[in-house]
Description:
Helix 8 (161-167) packs parallel to helix 9. The strands form 4 sheets. Strands 10-11-9-8-5-6-7-14 form an 8-stranded mixed β-sheet, sandwiched between helices. The protein contains 13 helices and 21 strands. Helices cover 29% and strands 26% of the residues. It is α+β, with helices and mostly antiparallel strands. A hairpin with a 2-residue loop joins strand 19 and strand 20 (404-412). S-adenosylmethionine is lined by residues 109-115, 133-135, 138, 161, 178, 180, 208, 212.
Amino acid sequence: MNLPEKFLERMKERLGKEYPAFLASYEKPPYKALRVNTLKISLEDFLDLAPFYLGEQTDWEENGFYIEEEKAGSYKEHFAGLYYLQEPSAMCVGEYTNACKKERVLDLCAAPGGKTTAIAAQMEGDGILISNEIDAGRAKILSQNVERMGIKNCAVTNATPAQLTEKFPCYFDLVLVDAPCSGEGMFKKEPEAIPHWSENNVALCAARQKEILDCAAQMVAGGGHLVYSTCTFSEEEDEWQIRAFVERHPEFVLEQEHKLYPYLEKGEGHYCARLRKVGGETKNAKPYPIKRNAQANKAFAEFAKDFFAVLPKGEITTLDDGRMYLVPAGMPALGVRTLRLGVELGEFDGRIFKPAHALAMSVKREEVKHFVALSPEECERYLSGETLSRELENGWCVVGFDKYPLGLAKCVNGVLKNHLPKGLRKM
Ligand code: SAM
């Protein structure tokens, strides 16, 4: 691996006699891992149906396992959101966030969603999770992952940290800043980042992190936590960044920090710190302004009568474009570009209600009246966008395998029409 001279020089200076071990770690292939999505499946059940060999549990996460499988993203269990593929060292952030039910949590730099999906599992669907991503394209991927994992208490936003700071002063029990960084810890996994490395870029990253952290600080409620992480080794972006932050913000104390080196861990490089805001107030925000549309609600109720065995609870809001969402209890007004809000139920076109893929991904088998269990071969055909056949009553149903939904289909005279969104189908 062709690593920048200056980077190696800096690492040698930092690590001293441990430097040869660090260098030798680049000889080994990167570790791969998955995290079981306990929002959808218990660990025990996953161990029974895991579609490929699972290695040891990862060091930092009880639901994490090392894997060897190269195509772990192409299995039906992945499409069903039963697991998330995540670099094993990145799982250490879960131990630092340790989010709880009923909390208000902000994941400020959230795409593609590794930490957000871990936090959502920690919250067990109870509380408010705002997952934000500044880049519109990446926010879309984040939103798809939130959907696939069946997270119901999350809003996905696409805003700058400063825009959110204006809306949510002293509001969150926990803010995670998984900062954009120079990525030194991921060179083995993402070699395309190597040519972008320079001391100048490290300095630019550090300056951007300082800005993001200063925004984040203002959004933490009194007594709340700020968790900061990077996948880089440079002190400017890690330990020095956090020490300078505490100097600027004496209301925060550093509770815990850890640096993960690839020659000491079974994973790549990472840094994580947990700070507590000891003083300061907690502020509330205005509640999310529900837009009630009687016609749309009537059309949904008509659909729901035949679709649900157990009706979902919560308030329905109907946006101007007809999209309908089940708003999580306690959701504040967002006031920034929002891609997803709680559970996307579907769309009202002024006449009829059409359910959304997200709805199928959020339900459990026993919550719907019509669940069609497919054979493994039929699952592959459904995921490729094919139409299947079944002698069933006409109408909407959820299709999947075992107890796990893959998406929606509509039965019309013995034909199961495929409603898996085109962009999510297997190529
Ligand atoms: N937390 C994510 C996960 O676990 O999947 C990874 C986040 S990645 C390390 C950092 C993210 O910060 C990127 O998605 C990037 O687009 C975003 N970002 C870049 N510049 C930013 C800025 N100025 N403010 C906030 N976020 C920014």
